[in-house]
């Protein structure tokens, strides 16, 4: 079903101020999310913050159950965090690893995640191995199977990276990992809210996501999915009041992912995340995903036709993030030029996607990431600005 773009834009006050093409960083929030966050902050100031949380209990819990509904799991398989990095770190810290254990990861891991693996190796003595890729930048499930032996204790993949339009075949890889019974972690920070993410289909043990990106939720929100049976084996690196039951003598970890809960949280943002997920569900992620694909494919085609621009995305299937380089122009300066024209984009530096960008010898990429609420006209404006830049260079070169 095609979506009503006029309504999507009317729900998004930000589109009147800027052409926002930095959705892979953080999206413009829709009105209902902004309203929910602001009205909870107001309620806190009027009746008292704890008292406001009691009044808003249902909306607060909806954060968790909405995420569960979105990714097709049980509510007790979700723990809430203030970022995907925190969620990922909590998962890594709770899986027992020791010297000689092997951990296989994709080269698409986000900078913080990769550093988290290096830190894991330092802490536990495990060996972190970055998997090779084929010409399309993808990890091959058969190649992965050949590398697995009894010392492999963890496999981690990023569903879609933050610096490239490619989509990883996480479900096919999941089937391979499942055969061996090794814990399988998936980073869905860029994919939740953008494309359908189903943890049963991916068949992973852990999956993390964030709220501010394609889910259009508030900043400082993230979540962890831990498969029920898997979560029962996890020993969190730290615990807090809501994650344990204390009987006066000892304590028991809460069932499932709830063992990661502490007590304090940013209530307004949590409520906002629930509203954002409900808002995404009301459109239907499969519907908004179809529009993102159409917009991004058109943008890639138009950008590739501009002399001096190279679209750097790989992969066989691509999503809404378009990565490009502009010949003779530093990405930072191109971004600044676009910003002056009222267009938000972003620059990915090699610290954010260390392994992949280092392997390819790319130090920076201009990232243009579209969401369903973007208009064709906004994308045309991007191309016009970039074309005027590159045409200017060509003319200088001639004169
Ligand atoms: C943004 C991002 C993260 C980290 O999310 P935070 O919420 O900023 O911690 C992890 N992985 C990928 C692929 C990302 O794009």
TrEMBL record:
GO MF term set: transaminase activity
PROSITE patterns: AA_TRANSFER_CLASS_5 (PS00595)
InterPro entries in the cross-refs: Aminotrans_V_dom, Aminotrans_V_PyrdxlP_BS, PyrdxlP-dep_Trfase, PyrdxlP-dep_Trfase_major, PyrdxlP-dep_Trfase_small
SUPFAM superfamilies the UniProt entry points to: PLP-dependent transferases
Cofactor (UniProt): pyridoxal 5'-phosphate
Keyword set, alphabetical order: Aminotransferase, Pyridoxal phosphate, Transferase
Keyword Ubl conjugation part of the UniProt annotation: no
Positions of the Aminotransferase class V domain: 21-381
Keyword Transferase annotated: yes
Family statement drawn from the similarity comment of this UniProt entry: Belongs to the class-V pyridoxal-phosphate-dependent aminotransferase family.
Protein name per the record: Aminotransferase class V-fold PLP-dependent enzyme
Organism: Kibdelosporangium persicum
């Amino acid at each position: 079903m095609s979506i009503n773009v006029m309504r999507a834009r009317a729900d998004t006050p930000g589109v009147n101020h800027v052409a926002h093409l930095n959705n892979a960083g953080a999206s413009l929030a829709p009105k209902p999310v902004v309203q929910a966050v602001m009205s909870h902050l107001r309620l806190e100031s009027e009746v008292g913050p704890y008292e406001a949380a009691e009044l808003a209990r249902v909306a607060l819990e909806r954060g968790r159950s909405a995420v569960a509904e979105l990714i097709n799991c049980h509510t007790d398989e979700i723990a809430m965090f203030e970022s995907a990095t925190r969620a990922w770190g909590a998962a890594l810290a709770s899986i027992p690893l020791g010297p000689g254990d092997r951990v296989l990861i994709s080269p698409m891991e986000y900078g913080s995640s990769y550093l988290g693996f290096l830190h894991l190796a330092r802490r536990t003595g495990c060996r972190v191995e970055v998997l090779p890729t084929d010409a399309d930048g993808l990890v091959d499930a058969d190649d992965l199977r050949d590398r697995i032996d009894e010392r492999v204790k963890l496999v981690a993949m990023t569903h879609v990276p933050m610096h490239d339009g490619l989509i990883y075949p996480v479900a096919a890889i999941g089937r391979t990992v499942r055969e061996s019974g090794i814990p399988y972690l998936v980073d869905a920070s860029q994919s939740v809210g953008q494309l359908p993410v189903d943890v049963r289909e991916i068949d992973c043990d852990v999956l993390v996501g964030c709220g501010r990106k394609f889910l259009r939720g508030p900043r400082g929100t993230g979540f962890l999915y831990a498969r029920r049976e898997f979560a029962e084996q996890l020993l969190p690196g730290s615990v807090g009041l809501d994650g344990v039951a204390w009987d006066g003598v000892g304590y028991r970890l809460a069932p499932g992912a709830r063992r990661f809960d502490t007590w304090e949280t940013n209530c307004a943002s949590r409520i906002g995340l629930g509203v954002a997920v409900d808002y995404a569900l009301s459109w239907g992620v499969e519907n908004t995903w179809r529009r993102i694909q159409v917009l991004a494919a058109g943008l890639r085609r138009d950008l590739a036709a501009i002399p001096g621009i190279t679209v750097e995305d790989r992969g066989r299937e691509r999503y809404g993030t378009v990565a490009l380089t502009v010949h003779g122009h530093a990405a930072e300066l191109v971004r600044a030029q676009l910003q002056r024209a009222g267009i938000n984009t972003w620059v990915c530096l090699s610290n954010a996607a260390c392994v992949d960008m280092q392997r390819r010898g790319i130090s920076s990429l201009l990232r243009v990431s579209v969401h369903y609420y973007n208009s064709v006209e906004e994308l045309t404006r991007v191309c016009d600005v970039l074309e005027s830049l590159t045409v200017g260079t060509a003319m200088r070169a001639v004169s």
